[in-house]
Amino acid sequence: MKKYVQTTAAVSNFSSLPLYQRFSIPDLLYVGYGLLIVGLVLVSYVLGAFNLLPHDPQQINMELLMAPPGTAGHLLGTDFMGRDIQSRLILGIQAYFLPGLLAIFIALSGGIVLGVLAGYRRGYTETVITYFTNLVDSFPRLVLILLVIAAFKPDIYYIMMVMGVTGIPAVANAIAGKIRVLAQKNFIEAAIALGLRTRVIILKHILWYNCRALLIIQATLGMGEAILLETSLSYLGFGVQEPTPSWGNMVQSGANYFMQGNFWPSTAPALAILFTILGFNLLGDGLNNILEGKRSR
Amino acid sequence: MKFMPLRALARTLLKELGLALLLLLGVSFVVFIILYAAPGDPFSVLLEGQMPSEQALAGIRVALGAQQSWYGQYLSWLHNVLGGNFGTSVRTGMPVAGELIHVSLNTLYLTLGSMLVTLFIAVPIALYSSMRGHSVAISWPLTMLGYVFSALPVFWLAYIVIYVSVHGFGFFPLSSGMGDGWLYTLVPVLVLGLGSGTISEVIRYLREEMSRVMAEDYIRTARAKGASVWRHAFKEGLLLPVSEIFAAKIPFILGGAVIVEQIFNWPGMGRMAWQAAQDRDFPVIMGIALIAAIFVRLGSMIQRMVFTAVNPHGARD
Question: What ipTM was predicted for this assembly?
Answer without folding.
Answer: 0.84
